[in-house]
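ugh finaly. both done.
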Amino acid sequence: MNRKLYLAALGLLFVVLLFGAPFMKAGSEAGIIKVPDLGNMGEEAEFYSGTPLDGPLNALVSVKKTLTDLYADFMPGYYETVFTYGKVRDTLNAPTASLYADMRANAGKKNADPAEPVQFVDTLSAGGEVSPADEAETAAPELPSDPRNEVVSVTSTLLTTTGTHRYYRIDAAFGDGFETSFLDTAVVLTDKSMESRVTMQAKKLNRIAAADPDVNFYFMLLTRMQDTDYYEDVIVGEQSTGKYADLFLSLLDERITAQKWDIGTLRDRVERVYLTDHHWSTYGSWLGFCQLCGMICPEHEPVALGEPIDFPETRFYGSAARTCQTLDLWDPFRVYDCDLGNYKCSPVWKFDRQVKYLSKQKYVTPDVNVYAVFFPEVYKVEYPDNHTGRNLLVIGDSYTQGFVELLGSAFDTTVAYYYTHYSGMNYRQVIEENHITDVLFEQFSDRILFDIYGDDRLSAIVLD
């Protein structure tokens, strides 16, 4: 009898797991069920090429990827199990982690030599490598280094590995006494694969830029820490992808005006990017806006940053925190009340209303992407009082969320297409219908350089 009950319970569990995921996905898409945001990033499917069975084999690969993504994102009870495990793990590890952090910080302070601080040089904003003469000048007593950028100590700990990345926790202390911990990644690809992907991705972007020569075409590479020179000093043993970012830019057509988003020092990384995510923070996005204005419309004076607004009852767990289940590390959520003047969005989005809504919430677990809650996708922004004679098309990814309203303040009308909507987008028709004068392509470097998630969909944009 007990054996029959055991088998019946096992069979019921199997049925729930088998049919629960499709049911939850359908309910989520219909708006009936709210499914926790697990922060999963699907691994790229490896398709076959050059074999007689390409068609059937690729069909199987597509089915496998669909099922993997389905049961990774919508498995009943998966989030609750992982969250409970993470909470118990962090609770048990808390005393040891605290002791280790104190020992590491004290050792860093003890070993630091004030006369020769560890400092990462900001070669990105400086516009190239530092010559020996420049190094000597920097070390001169009359030009002391900025303690904010002096790295007194930095350590990294491998947390987990997925099919696309290795995830690290980094603990850093700076010369001005500031200490912080954050999460970052290393791409899991060979050098040969990275070079071939960069070459292919550059061809795709060049093809888009060449489709309509009558518009101004701009590109911003949304930099990751791994694209910087100081990366290898932070995560020892991992390789910087900076040379591949430079290779990509060198392969772009000369009619494309391009630049990297500036996170040229480790301090920039922790102040302009979320500690637990790869996205720029609201402060970082404003700096990106100012940087873009210098490239696209230097005559335009960017709006001021505005007053900060904090939500003390809310924690933002970025995708890295959700992937690693590091429940002891999160970002306080902050936005800025920039005076954007008279504008309207489609769909309707109002800053004050979002502030009021989030102030009433208490998000303290990783199942909600707070950034996406505050900044949903906006597809069109109009500033009726602007008379610039310029209309902008932004082709981007999730960095565009919460950014297009700000960027649109420099134009009359701004239209946004997110990477999930590239399929079926008729590029020249969008330009013609919206009287577009300028196009900005911006994407997270993992996606545009390496198409690491297999979801950039550039080939799906209609150009004919």
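ok and the 2nd:
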Amino acid sequence: MAYEQNAPFRFMSFKEWVPDGIRFWIYMLFLACFQFSNGMYFTAMSQMEGSLAITPNDVKMMSHAMLIGLTMYFPVAFRLKFRFTNRTCLITAALVLIGCNLIVPYVHSTPLLVLLCFIAGFARLFGTFECFSSVLPKVAPTYNYAVFLSLVFFVVLGVIHLFDIASTYIIYFYNWRYVHLLAIGLLLLVILCAYMLMRPFRPMPKMPLYGVDWLGMVLCSTFILSLIFVVQYGNQLNWLDSAYIRVALGSATLALAFSVWRMFNVRHPFLEVDAFKTKNLLNLLVIFLLMGILLTTKTVLQNTFTGAILHFDALNTVSLKWFEFIGMALGAIFSWFAISRLKWHKKLVTFIGMSFIVYYTVMMYFLMSPATNIEKLYLPLVCCGFGQVVIFITLTVYAQATARFRNYFQVICILGFIRTGIASPIGDAIYSRAMSGVLSKNLALLGENAAQSNLPMVNTLQELFGYSVILGAITLIAIAASRFKKHIGMPIPTFVRMYRVVMRR
């Protein structure tokens, strides 16, 4: 047994003639390709609106559907991994994403586009999880999740920013549909490499899919997507005056009721009751909600500032993502060092991460001027990227340490309802509504002549950033006053220990 634990790690899913030194990097290539592949690309929003006759809210709804599809994969992650071979998982995920990228540019039905984006999100994490779960023993031989999750969130969030940069250049010089062609080409590369270099390999005995609560997944998806629809379209459709909003609220209520009933009456529900009993879960949900609302200042207020006031073109705007990427890299390194090496309390690291997001809003408050040049935005964006990654890593590590392994991925799914689900639409709705009201007030106070100088808009953005600073200060006080309960320490389950031994043979 001692020999097996000290033996060098080998990726057994590859054919014997593939050199050991490149196997890890092949997985990293696969990861990059999957992160480059969505059903819909937010950087092509304005072009898609004209080509497919859809509204900005439609595009945002599709983006949220993709993230919810990604979130819904977590509770069934290991069931799918141990049912299919490594190569089958990668090829299947790539084929589904290719199908979505082929269909989406030519569909004009918004509900169908939302469904396709949901499927694409599920397939994207299907392939991503297969890669990450395979490299886990290599990246963190002692199963230190602080090290592993630092890599995970840097790759997931960082590569997305790099792809946004690449896709913006493609859209600027060519056509938005070429982005889908790029994704298809990368996914074909994944299929070719997986078929040529890998062999059918399953680290554990074949596990049937019998007992997976697929209906529970549908109900949970319906519930959260209905809520997102209400928040995203509420202002456009005049809230409860619209029959669509009322139907969405009714659907959400029924889906929630049936989900709760199944939780108590089905032997293996999609989300178990014990998952909701995880220590400090409510605190984590609130922190993620407040972080999501604060981060929408970047997508709503900052984009309005750079577009309407500074008049940046697409290339100048996307160049700012390089500094978010740098901040994310620094945040991942800091999280790894603070949690894994220095053993800092996760409450302290969370406070530091949120402080950097609040510092971003403070700096943006003082930068609201038509005379601001692009260089002054670099430091705020580095701070924003840094804080976002630190909070994602720290709170996910804390959830891993407090939840039982049986419920860990269910807890991640629950956190995803807020983290990648409802938080962003809520923030978008709040700031969009507030911007409209505050701008009307400023126009009335300053008069029509001042509107020619963009002064009302500048004052509106500065006022809303000021409110964001206050919200951020309240969030920091709440974190400082909250109690991060002592974790129980999630033991490595038997099948993971077996998996580690198998992979070292």
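summary for the 2nd one i guess: Residues 1-212 form a domain with the Growth Hormone; Chain: A; fold (CATH 1.20.1250.20).
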